[in-house]
Amino acid sequence: xxxxxxxxxxxxxxxxxxxxxxxxxxxxxxxxxxxxxxxxxxxxxxxxxxxxxxxxxxxxxxxxxxxxxxxxxxxxxxxxxxxxxxxxxxxxxxxxxxxxxxxxxxxxxxxxxxxxxxxxxxxxxxxxxxxxxxxxxxxxxxxxxxxxxxxxxxxxxxxxxxxxxxxxxxxxxxxxxxxxxxxxxxxxxxxxxxxxxxxxxxxxxxxxxxxxxxxx
Length: 216
Prior knowledge:
Layout: H1 3-7, H2 12-28, H3 34-47, H4 53-89, H5 96-109, H6 111-117, H7 121-133, H8 138-166, H9 171-207
């Protein structure tokens, strides 16, 4: 069943909770389709008066902020062993190359990596736990986390909602296009990060010194 068609069968309160939960769990570091669920719910709110887009955006923002904060706390406590455990559980998302790419983003951009990480598929999963592992000062993380969560979740809800209202006659077609666009954007950003991750892995392997043969 289409995600939006399934959401139509769910009460409004459950949709708010579902969006907050999926985005929150994704922000913890568990790969889930948070962006697709948010886009579908925002489109649904533009078609049904029972779903308030303001409440929806607030719930999505809250899920993003709380999820990232919990991810930060877990990452700060778990440290490097946590990344190793995540790599074993989710090798496609937490490989050594992906971790290296994310770390370089944090080293280059600092707290801005937390803010802009909201708009990049893999960094959205990494931001909270990795910021904790790297012991980023919490007050800096919190500011970037709150602003990033509001701009991404609230902004996405507002844009999709108003486009859905304007294009009401094409809403069903747009729901597919909106979901397709979200998937393509997510896949595109994932491919970019994966390419950088592979490059980082290659550079990391080349940088490792070759073992010195033992003397006879």
